Amino acid sequence: MKKYLSLLLLCVLACLFEGCKQKVSSVDEITIRPIPVIFDTDMGNDVDDALALDILCKSMDKGDINLLALMLNKKGEGAAKYLDIMNTWYGYPQLPIGIAKNIEDKNESTNYAQSVCDLNIFPTTLTDYQNLPDAHILYRKILASQPDHSVVIISTGFSTNLARLLDTPADEYSKLNGKELIQQKVKYMSLMAGAIKMADHREFNITQDLPAAQKLFAECPVPLVTSPFEVGNAIKYPATSIENDFSWAPQHPMVEAYKAYMQMPYDRQTWDLTAVLHVLHPGEYMTCSEEGKITVDEKGLTHFEPKKGGMQYYLMTNDEQNKKVLDYFLKIIPQKPKNK
């Protein structure tokens, strides 16, 4: 009987996951390879964004994704310049960068992006960071040129750019408004946002632009999968790797960012990396919830309600999966990029 119940539980969990995977994957029968990806980041706030971009660049090297653009939802020239440094160092200097203008920056932690820029040891490609295009306009330009239901948006910061995109009218790039354009061109979104299993936790990416987060979860017209706070919080990238695994690179912009963010040695949570991992290997490392709806209340708390036909999901892991995820990160991140 015990063996039967265990098998039944496994079947139920498998069905829940497959339901999420099928829902996200079957938006359209067109399957594009490499996967067209747009990365929306608050680079400079927490160093996990830098590690997430490292994985994305190496996925470009392997031909798994086609990174179409980087969108910034953090204020400051240093954040944009750091993206330029990373693009140049990894061999993708042509990657477009969009910025969020007229925003506040409430974060008072160390801006590692600016710290790396101040070292003046890494080459750049761009010369003018203040006049980069508005992210929500760059979104429109890029999405309009892509096949229908093909693009995956990975957002690991605030929802500012995506909320602004939802509100855009028709323009020179598309006769569709923002919501219609997303619905036609985006396959799904993978976010690091919220805290589903921690009822009283006001997650940073939600609270720093609360109206934008509320709008995105309320109005997103395509499937949305979020990796909540508790997932990445349980998986920490070890300082020992930063200290010992990069001797092949005397000057490495991701490593310097890690060292600048906090006093070494420290292990750091992998929040944003999990949102990337889900796109690269859906279902292989983390479990997806049943379908439903995520809401954000006025306090910045996130709530999930199971709902048949819902298009929003959240990721979960257990101890065994956490180890498997960390092993993946430890395998990929210390590797040399293709051009090094």
Layout: helices, strands, pairs:
Blueprint: H1 2-25, E1 35-41, H2 48-62, E2 65-72, H3 77-90, E3 97-98, H4 112-119, H5 135-144, E4 151-155, H6 160-166, H7 178-185, E5 186-192, H8 204-207, H9 210-219, E6 224-227, H10 229-233, E7 236-237, H11 239-244, H12 253-261, E8 268-269, H13 271-280, E9 287-288, E10 292-296, E11 302-306, E12 312-316, H14 319-332
Describe this structure in words.
The protein is an alpha/beta fold. It is 42% helix and 16% strand. The strands form three sheets. The chain has an eight-stranded mixed β-sheet. A two-stranded antiparallel sheet has the order 7-8. It has a two-stranded antiparallel sheet with strand order 10-11. Mean pLDDT is 91; it is low at 1-19 and 25-30.
Keywords for this structure?
Inosine-uridine Nucleoside N-ribohydrolase, Chain A, alpha/beta, globular, 16% strand, 340 residues, disordered N terminus, 14 helices, 8-stranded mixed beta sheet
H-E string: HEHEHEHHEHHEHHEHEHHEHEEEEH
Question: How large is the radius of gyration?
Answer: 19 Å
**Helix/strand structural class:** alpha/beta
Number of domains: 1
> Uncertain runs with pLDDT below 50, 5 residues or more?
1-19, 25-30
Strand order of the largest sheet: 3-2-1-4-5-6-12-9
Going by CATH, what is the homologous superfamily?
Ribonucleoside hydrolase-like
Percent strand equals: 15-25%
Q: State the separation between the terminal residues, measured CA to CA.
A: 56 Å
Helicity range: 40-55%
CATH architecture: Alpha-Beta Complex
Oligomer status: single chain
CATH class, named: Alpha Beta
